[in-house]
Design goal:
Elements (H helix, E strand, L loop, with lengths): L7 E5 L2 E3 L5 E5 L6 E9 L5 E9 L6 E2 L17 H4 L2 E2 L18 E9 L11 E8 L6 E4 L6 E6 L6 E7 L9 H8 L3 E6 L13 H12 L4 E11 L1 H12 L8 E4 L11 H9 L4 E2 L5 E2 L1 H9 L14 E6 L7 H14 L6 E6 L16 E6 L4 E6 L4 H24 L5
Parallel strand pairs: 2-9, 12-13, 12-14, 14-15, 15-18, 18-19
Antiparallel strand pairs: 1-3, 3-6, 4-5, 4-8, 5-7, 8-9, 10-11, 11-13, 16-17, 20-21
């Protein structure tokens, strides 16, 4: 099709943090015609990811991803950030992929393009394209890998002299050093230590004493740019078990508040990570129709043995628990039910704020992260790779990520900054 005036594609802002929204507007189109808007990203693993929506230009020859309905593609309806949160590997890609940023000092480059029609857009030359940058590190955030230290991790410090509130950030049972959430927290004003406590697939490196985590907490607390009285802990899945153990049993760690995503309270301080994983490995694992491992039902019996449970009644600080009601990896909702009952009996239920999201899965991450119902997972127990079912449906899971991040930042603002932050 020939156009009298070339279509104009506007993306604002083209450079932003990953949790910021953008606006995508196309002008100079023929009125009432079908068009496809697509995003394309080449991951650090050299896999292509895409999302796209099918739109119809209005009577002025314009379409807005924020305001208009998508009639098909990877999302439908009015989805302002559908071009990011519904990204998936392009057809023919390797199975079981997960999109995670490894080098947070560089942006995710996402190309937004517009095509004529609703079919065969991959075979077309785009009418217009714009390259956008999505950052985990805001300008001025400093990154300091811990070298010659007792712990393994990376420290992120916000711009300015401080003092800042501090955060210890821990991920789950996949192991490894993951920096992207810590970098994003630093971009919001928190000095954050992203901690590695075992290597992916190497269970022997998980045999850490709790003094390891206490040392990590104190590295943050004692940093000259951190307010030592305003340090919190953030844990996801297995990391939430470490978080709760520190908040309830440590004699030297006094977090101001804690955040637990996909909570785990059945790995008590007396049970090492190695022991817990070994016990789980003895249970028969279920598989779904796609041969994905489903751990949820394996874990439920452990809840009945209260000797495994962390003594949450000992907690002394506010706690925020985020759970997905379709979590197929971990019975997070039931665990928080159990924690609430225990805290209520102890007269401490006022310390727990819980948010449960219908049809959200296990991997509740920062906003606009693509949803992964299942991915490859390197099991530390057997050192083999399996397909793991995490659960969740794309639309409600994406909404949960956006809403929970707002609630997490609000919770941290209230408990770590209080009235000291403008």
């Amino acid at each position: 099709m020939q156009y009298a005036v070339a279509p104009i594609l506007c993306v604002q802002p083209t450079r932003a943090l990953v949790d910021e929204k953008f606006k995508v507007l196309v002008k100079n189109l023929p009125p009432g015609r079908p068009f496809t808007v697509r995003s394309l990203h080449l991951s650090e693993d050299k896999d292509y990811w895409e999302a796209y929506g099918h739109y119809v230009s209005d009577h002025q020859g314009e379409l807005s991803v924020r305001d208009d309905l998508s009639f098909g593609g990877t999302y439908t309806g009015r989805e302002p950030m559908g071009l990011l949160c519904t990204m998936c590997p392009i057809p023919g890609s390797r199975p079981g992929l997960r999109l995670r940023k490894k080098d947070v000092t560089t942006p995710m480059l996402v190309t937004i393009s517009v095509y004529s029609g609703h079919e065969d857009h991959r075979d077309q030359t785009p009418l217009a394209s714009v390259v956008t940058e999505r950052w985990y590190m805001a300008p001025g955030v400093q990154r300091f890998p811990l070298q010659q230290s007792e712990v393994r991790g990376t420290l992120f410090v916000p711009p300015g002299p401080g003092p800042f509130p501090g955060m210890l950030d821990m991920w789950g049972g996949g192991g490894g050093l993951l920096e992207y959430r810590g970098a994003l927290l630093a971009s919001h004003g928190y000095a954050c230590l992203s901690l590695e406590y075992f290597k992916p697939g190497e269970l022997e490196t998980a045999n850490q004493q709790y003094s390891y985590f206490e040392t990590a907490f104190n590295i943050i607390k004692d940093h000259p740019q951190v307010n030592p009285d305003r340090v919190g802990i953030f844990g996801l899945s297995l990391g939430s078990a470490v978080t709760l153990n520190l908040a309830t049993e440590s004699a030297i760690v006094e977090p101001r508040c804690v955040v637990c995503v996909s909570s785990n309270n059945i790995f008590s301080r007396d049970m090492s990570i190695v022991t817990a994983y070994t016990n789980l490995s003895k249970c028969p694992v279920k598989h779904d129709e796609n041969n994905c491992e489903v751990w949820r039902d394996v874990v439920l019996p452990f809840m009945k043995d209260t000797s495994n449970n962390i003594k949450v009644e000992k907690i002394r600080c506010p706690m925020l628990c985020i759970s997905g009601c379709d979590d197929q990896n971990w019975p997070a909702v039931e665990i928080v039910d159990n924690m609430m009952e225990t805290l209520r009996a102890a007269g401490k239920d006022h310390l727990l704020t819980r948010v449960d999201y219908p049809d959200a899965g296990h991997l509740i991450e920062p906003p606009f992260t693509p949803h992964f119902r299942s991915t490859n997972f390197l099991r530390s127990i057997a050192q083999d790779k399996v397909l793991m079912l995490w659960g969740g449906q794309t639309k409600p899971h994406s909404d949960a990520q956006e809403d929970s991040w707002r609630k997490i930042l609000s919770f941290l603002q209230h408990n770590l900054y209080g009235n000291d932050r403008p």
